[in-house]
Amino acid sequence: MRDSARTLFVIALLSGGVVSYGQPPNDRLFAHIYGAVAGAYIGNAMGAPVEGWTWEKIEKTYGFLDKFVADPRSKGVPNQPGWTEDGMERYKLLASAVIKKGGRISIEELGREWVEKIDPTRIGFRIGPQDRVIYDLLKAGIPPMEVGRYALWPGFMGTSKMMQPLGLISACRPDVAAKDALDLGRIKDAQGRPLWRNDKQTEDGRYRSTLIYNSALENCAAIAAATAEAIRPSATVDSVIAVALAQLPPGSRKEVETVLGFAKNAKDWKEIRPLYQKFYEGTPISNAIDILAGGLACFKLANGQPREATLYATNLGRDTDCKAYVAGGLAGALRGIEAWPPEWVELVEKAVLTDPYTVDKRNARQIAEGLYWAAINEMRKVKAQTGELESLLGK
Q1: pTM
Q2: Which fold has domain 12-382?
Q3: What is the pLDDT along the chain (395 residues), one digit of tens a residue?
């Protein structure tokens, strides 16, 4: 990087503003990062209007939903096609902190970003009302690693929706991405306590009672690590899924593998819909492992192709925007920006500029550029450390 461009980059990091770094990046790393970020925007925007619907309702209303539509449940300014939802707001807060730092961040730095960028008068419009308790506790000076103990809806996917950028800046290093996700996820969740008791009747008429535990942080690690793996040049659909599974405790891993089995045995994507719906019948739609399982199944069914992965997840039912974020984000990271329909990318790029409630009006490309330079910084650190270690060899 030339001195003038480096100076602009430093200014951008210090100010947290959007700046052009001169010649935009044009390599495979950027293509994969941009593909992943575009997938996050697209998945959230396409899946949000049918969040909570059954697959039957989606099919009855739209046939096959393959376009962006307005969310009928929006508050305030009528929702526009291409606008995202509360999960994407948390994503933007974490991405903004990473871009400002120019690399990996601490949970304290993430907490400061929440306090500085959230307008409390707009909580409940785009950023969710469930995040007010986190904002208020951070504003009151409670340490960020403690506030997740008091957050609403523990064990849900809202924590994991932040985590994709951690995999992008630690590309090809799933272990590092997973470690950061386990740490930063504590701002919105805590481990260890059971969430609910799941009672199911077995074939012989008896009832089986199982405690469902909070695996939200492991889910954070799975998404971040899988994203880092997806950017690896040798990555495959199966290697991405294997890395995600490796982050989970045995019970959660078995749950995800069961849903992946539905995908493996299905003749086409439609066959998985009733199986998935029945498997999770009676459980909260936003449970983190439920969404990871459905998202990975759609990613598998689509062979990692972004368009198909997103559409399968959108039409699967239950928490559709979250599953589309998982499936589309991983597919975009694996295949790159050129694998997305250009008109989809263009729509969400323009839509963010008209959203009056978002915490950050940077579009997917601008976020991707900032994360790209953060990834370059992390790569340089690793190379420097490797050089120091190599200097010791043979001495």
Answers
A1: 0.90
A2: ADP-ribosylglycohydrolase fold (1.10.4080)
A3: 444 444 434 434 333 443 334 456 889 999 999 999 999 999 999 999 999 999 999 999 999 999 999 987 766 667 899 999 999 999 999 999 999 999 999 999 999 999 999 999 999 888 988 999 999 999 999 999 999 999 888 889 999 999 999 999 999 999 999 999 999 999 999 876 666 667 766 677 776 777 667 899 999 999 999 999 999 999 999 999 999 999 999 989 999 999 999 999 999 999 999 999 999 998 899 999 999 999 999 999 999 999 999 999 999 999 999 999 999 999 999 999 999 999 999 999 999 999 999 999 999 999 999 999 999 999 999 999 999 999 999 76
Cβ neighbours for 357, distance < 8 A, ≥ 6 positions apart: 76, 77, 122, 125, 126, 127
* Of residues 337, 296, 289, the one with CA closest to residue 316: 296
Residue with tokens 């019948």: 281
Which candidate, 66, 119, 46, places its Cα nearest to that of 89? 119
Domain map (residue ranges) of the chain? 12-382
For 127: left if phi > 0, alpha if psi spans -120 to 50, otherwise beta; the answer is: beta
Q: Which of 221, 259, 272 is nearest to 243 (CA)?
A: 221
In angstroms, the Cα distances linking 348 to 17, 31, 41, 99, 381 are: 20, 17, 7, 21, 33
